[in-house]
Amino acid sequence: MLAAILNDMASLPDERQTFIAHSRVATTFKQEGVKVVIQGHVHFYSRCATEEIQYLTLGGGGAELTDVVETDAPAFVTGEAFVYHFARFDIVDNNTMNVSVINKDGSTIDSFSVTQ
Structurally, how many domains does the chain consist of? Predict the structure, then answer.
């Protein structure tokens, strides 16, 4: 399985929070071969990577962006942006998915590929 979708957060890109990726849900993701977790609930973009799973927070679709306190992002945060955005998922073949996160002006703010 390449992707799973959640409404609530499985991870938060904030050093004040416990990174929940080590919880039971993360264990299930690993067992099932999940490579990308798509999550919402907060209004910004973030990508956290741990144990070969990319956790995407895609919360910039139109509501007011979350007002966050500026902090140094922990090492597992590989990308973040406080802009309106959407994500494009391109299945290249049976084993590869390319992901691009694009802001409202059409610029790519983050991209990566995963292979099953």
Answer: 1
